[in-house]
Amino acid sequence: MTATIILLGLLICGSTGGEISIARGMKNIGEASLRPKALLKFLGRALQSGWLWIGIGLMAISFYSLLVLLSWHPISFVIPASALSNVVGTLGAKYILREQISGARWAGVLLVCGGVALVAGG
Amino acid sequence: MPSERKLRIKTLVMVFALVICANIGDLTLKRGMTEIGAVELSAPGLAHSLWLSVTNVKIWIGIFFLVGFMASYMTVLSWADYSYVMPVGAFGYAMLTFFAVVILHEHVSGRRWIGVLVVCFGVLLVGMTKPRTTEAA
């Protein structure tokens, strides 16, 4: 049980920390265009961002935790438990990325968390 | 077309692409890991499961789709809020349930349908907020 809790912590912190790092890096690079050539250029510039590699490192930890958890438990346990990352991620967006989280957005995030738990646990 | 509407449509299209890639990637990985079996948390056990992972085709197909997910994710985060993209992407759970019924003819419990409705309502609420609340770089 202790190992499961530690791995869930790594899964949630790794994925949200990784996503926030990537979001920071992509915002620094500037808005991507959807034209194929410009998009490839954007992805090339993104590969030179330190934030991207920090994010990938954190997401790799999260990914391996997910693989181990999936080999131990059914997906109907792992996914609802990991839905908490929506709340942790929104807090990170507010305090680290300085995004404005309106009441409607918070309500939506909480509904999504509850809904995901019902879908995967049902 | 007003720029905010254009931004919203562009964001939702990219979120749709990343959800499709993530769902296919996760399902394929789950099938691959089921083939490999429970991972033993010891140095030889981890090394053995790592070797089995890198030689399993389903794991590689899963990784291919997750790379597609990553590229879409990076692109959409260059213009949209993380706190917008993350919850809106949760409509993938609703989509998976819909596919389970229509394609796989699985039975879905009432509790799960309620969950789908709650997720959709949450996504709708977040979807109506501004996709970007910070200054562009």
How would you describe what is shown here?
The complex is a heterodimer of chains A (122) and B (137). Chain A contains six helices and no strands. With 122 residues, chain A is mainly alpha-helical. Chain A has one domain. In chain A, helix 1 packs antiparallel against helix 3, helix 1 packs parallel to helix 5 (85-95) and helix 4 packs antiparallel against helix 6. Chain A is globular and about 45 Å long. The model of chain A has no long low-confidence stretch (mean pLDDT 88). Chain B contains six helices and no strands. Chain B has helices spanning 3-36, 43-54, 57-77, 82-88, 91-102, 110-127. The mean pLDDT of chain B is 85. Chain B has one domain. At the A-B interface, helix 1, helix 2, helix 3, helix 5 and helix 6 of A face helix 1, helix 3, helix 4, helix 5 and helix 6 of B.
Computed CA radius of gyration of chain B, to the nearest angstrom: 18 Å
Portion in beta strands of chain A: under 5%
Dominant shape of chain A: globular
Q: Whole-number average pLDDT of chain B?
A: 85
Q: Helix content range of the residues of chain A, please?
A: over 70%
Task: Return the structural class of chain B.
Answer: mainly alpha
Please give the alpha-carbon distance between the first and last residues of chain B: 23 Å
- Quaternary assembly: heterodimer
Distance between the termini of chain A: 22 Å
Counting DSSP H or I runs of 4 or more residues, the number of helices of chain B is: 6
Low-confidence stretches of chain A: none
For the largest beta-sheet of chain A, the strand count, sense and barrel status come to: none
Please give the radius of gyration of chain A in angstroms.
16 Å
What would you call the structural class of chain A?
A: mainly alpha
* Proportion of beta-strand residues of chain B: under 5%
Total of domains of chain B: 1
Q: Domain count of chain A, please report it.
A: 1
Number of helical segments of chain A? 6
Biggest contact: A-B, 55 and 53 residues
Secondary-structure element series of chain A? HHHHHH
